[in-house]
Amino acid sequence: MKISLNPDENIVNIVKQGLEQRGGYCPCRMEKTEENKCICEEFRRQMDDPEFEGYCHCMLYYKSLS
């Protein structure tokens, strides 16, 4: 398993700006809860899933199986 940033620098910059403005909470989620703190609970579960490959909800991170 490998976790990497989205290769699209524009998306990375937009999401990072949103994270900075929201104090580390996902800019794609309305609620500021621990589950939405980056790296969010949803993506942590996806990282634990041996069959999941893809982006996190906000497209900042990508999990590859190889």
Structure explained in plain terms:
With 66 residues, the chain is of the alpha+beta class. It has one domain (2-64). The chain is built from 2 helices and 3 strands; from the N terminus they run βααββ. It has a 3-stranded antiparallel sheet, covered by helices on one side. A hairpin with a 5-residue loop joins strand 2 (54-55) and strand 3 (61-64).
Give me the secondary-structure topology.
Layout: E1 2-5, H1 9-21, H2 41-48, E2 54-55, E3 61-64
Antiparallel strand pairs: 1-3, 2-3
Total domain count: 1
Please list the strands of the largest sheet in the order they lie side by side.
Answer: 1-3-2
Oligomer: single chain
Alpha-carbon distance between the termini?
Answer: 6 Å
3D shape: flat
Radius of gyration: 12 Å
Secondary-structure class:
alpha+beta
Helix fraction?
Answer: 25-40%
Task: Figure out the total of helices.
Answer: 2
User: Low-confidence spans: pLDDT under 50, at least 5 residues?
Assistant: none
Q: What percentage of amino acids are in beta strands?
A: 15-25%
Q: Note the run of SSEs as H and E.
A: EHHEE
Number of strands: 3
Largest sheet descriptor: 3 strands, antiparallel
Mean pLDDT: 96
